[in-house]
Amino acid sequence: MHEASLARAVVNTVMDALKDKGLKDQRVTSITLRIGDLAQVDLESLEFAFSFATLETELESCRLMFTSKDAVVRCMDCKRQSSYSTEYFYRCKVCGGPCELVSGKEFDVISLELESSGVQ
Amino acid sequence: MKQLIELEDHILNKANSEALRLRETLASAGTLVVNVMSSPGSGKTEMISALSNELRSCGDTVAVLVGDCATDHDAKRLAPHVDWVEQIVTKGICHLEPRMLVPYLPELLELTPKYLFIENVGNLVCPVDFDLGESVRISLLSTTEGEDKPAKYPDLFRSCDITVISKVDLAEVVEFSERKAQNFLDQVAPKTRTIKVSARTKEGVPELAQAIREVAQRSRGDEISITES
Question: Which residues fall within 8 angstroms of residue A29, CB to CB, at 6 or more apart?
Fold first, then answer.
């Protein structure tokens, strides 16, 4: 059910963006999302939930496209950046210091492809 | 004709703005919001009851919003120990979202409790991503569920300010190793404070209450920000 909530959030985000830009009546043919490795989003489940969330709406039959983002941590002591791994989690693999997450939790809409009806 | 629109919108922006509104409104009313998350059966309800008894013994008021997929069992269990409690039945949704809390805001603003505990739906995955307007996040790791839960579900434990090791009165019986658990917690959540609690014997309850009071004192009059999530 996690992805059902996320699918609804995708729909809300896109509808708000269309409204903000005065593009409410345009048909959206695809939505590209950026999803970090640690965003806890299963792509297949999200697509499945999205297909139900958009039934009989302006976004029905719109495709979801994905780009990924690697999880990267930075040591707060030695400042070294490295790939996140479940061997070290949030401890620096070099000095053992505590790490902060630089990237990997992204869950963003980065573009929409629109098909303008009636415009040749 | 095709047209490409570039955006840079976080998908949970709408939920996050609702959470921000909850946080600002409740903070200005003097209420500290605590989001309590853990797996089902790890002792959230008992811990909140014990904590509430401790906080109320000092004259503070405690409200609780408790989420479950079905039944109002937890609200009934909490009722004798708190000033106000409402059950949110999610009908299968595995976490609470800020929009589910909004309907209770008028009543909470009338009551203006010192503390609002949100007992999230028992789950170590989905609740992590939903800010509920809290200023403190607490996770529970019960001695009965094994020391490596933080390694299996790092995001949840990492997002919390405090991890409560619950049911410590059972530690010996279930051969729970506090050292192993602490090692896993140090790996996934180096900045999180650990407090051992038994809701049954009350071990650690005053310490936990004190930790929450300290956050409340720090938050009063200040701009409140939640921890990295």
Answer: A62, A63, A113, A114, A115, B2
